[in-house]
Design a protein that fits this description.
Blueprint (H helix, E strand, L loop, with lengths): L8 E6 L7 H10 L4 E5 L2 H11 L6 E6 L1 H14 L9 E5 L5 H5 L5 H9 L9 E4 L2 E6 L5 E6 L1 E5 H15 L4 H5 L2 H19 L3 E6 L5 E3 L5 E3 L8 E6 L2 E5 L21 E6 L3 H6 L1 H6 L7 E6 L1 E14 L2 E13 L4 E4 L6
Parallel strand pairs: 1-2, 1-3, 3-4
Antiparallel strand pairs: 5-18, 6-7, 6-17, 8-13, 8-16, 9-12, 9-16, 10-11, 13-14, 14-15, 16-17
Helix pairs in contact: 2-3, 6-8
């Protein structure tokens, strides 16, 4: 066996991440002296680095950060790599807050991950899993539609909780900040900030239109079932909502299985609506968190594209990052798929 100590690996470190920065870049470089490690501060820097790195054909390009870093890497690759070419394999080091994609792929803690990468056999075929990507498009005033690739996106509680969580974290000082950065901080933000606002404002209305040729649902036993009569333009949902969105990854982060069926149908999006009241949602938190099915008020579809129209502007969450409120958003399966390093195959 030929141990590479990082040869053939390209590792992107987000300088702006809470656990990223120069210290992490130095730590990775010490463990993996032959790896191409780059500290970046902007999308333009990521794209420039990729243009010089891709000709060397790295075995895998690893994002050292959270879901935001991984999504930034995927979007930069989509811009740099010609549309008729397959995207290079990517991986995740578990350095973010929620770490949805890293958790699903079994990523270990940083020290163990670097140990595994440093001991890779040069001839080993890396275990990869194939994921579809959600192309999230929304109109920009005075310009064309803008699209962002992600593994999940949505509106409602998820986006509001993320915003409230980040606000709570920014206000936390001293020892309480340790808990504010954990899953307990996430739950606290939901119960003390998001839920009261939701009760006061009430649930918004959403119209979800199918923009694909057909659609499927999930029966009470969890089996996929084609919906007869559904075609382009058919209404999937027309009613109140607490949470809605689409995903190809089953987690939101913190092992919250918000889309437990998302990996079941490669080439389609798992579109979901949860229509219960705020108090009903709080009572369902344990079952929501584990992705229990069937769950009262939860509705699932699989389609290649859908349009969401809200009764009032709602904040959106795209792959772990918040964007400004929108009235309309379209989500569709990107023609580009992503091959992602499966850490469980390396353990």
């Amino acid at each position: 066996m030929t141990v590479t100590t990082g040869e053939g690996l390209a590792i992107l470190v987000n300088a702006n991440a809470k656990r990223g920065g120069r210290r992490i870049a130095v730590q990775i470089s010490r463990f993996l002296p032959q790896a191409n490690v780059r500290l970046t501060r902007s999308q333009d820097e990521v794209a420039t680095w990729l243009r010089t790195t891709l000709p060397n054909k790295p075995r895998v390009i690893v994002a050292a950060g959270g879901d935001g870093t991984a999504i930034a890497l995927v979007n930069a690759l989509a811009r740099v790599v010609p549309e008729n070419e397959e995207l290079p394999a990517v991986g995740m080091l578990k350095l973010g807050t929620g770490n949805a994609w890293a958790n699903v792929l079994g990523a270990p803690k940083l020290a163990r991950a670097l140990e595994i990468l440093g001991s890779l056999d040069a001839d080993l075929a890396l275990p990869l899993r194939r994921y579809g990507l959600v192309d999230v498009g929304y109109p920009v005033e005075g310009g064309p539609e803008v699209g962002t690739l992600a593994h999940f996106a949505g509106a409602g509680w998820d986006a509001e909780i993320l915003s409230d969580y980040k606000e709570q974290l920014a206000q936390s000082k001293g020892p309480p900040r340790f808990f504010a950065k954990s899953v307990y901080g996430y739950v606290t933000a939901m119960l003390t900030r998001t839920a009261p606002k939701s009760i006061m404002l009430g649930r918004p209305h959403v119209l979800i239109e199918n923009l694909g040729e057909e659609a499927y649902t999930v029966d009470t036993q969890g089996a996929l079932k084609r919906i007869e009569g559904v075609r382009y333009g058919s209404v999937l949902w027309d009613g109140l909502m607490s949470v809605t969105g689409a995903a190809t990854c089953p987690e939101f982060g913190y092992h919250f299985r918000a889309y437990p069926f998302a990996e079941r149908f490669l080439g389609m999006l798992n579109v979901r609506v949860f229509d219960r009241t705020t108090l009903g949602g709080i009572a369902s938190i344990p079952r929501l968190w584990t992705g229990a099915h069937p769950l009262r008020g939860m509705h699932d579809w699989f389609t290649t594209a859908a349009r969401f129209t809200f009764s009032r502007p709602l904040a959106l969450e795209i792959g772990g990052d918040s964007v400004t409120p929108r009235r309309t958003v379209e989500m569709r399966v990107s023609p580009r798929e992503c091959r992602v390093l499966d850490w469980r195959g390396l353990h």
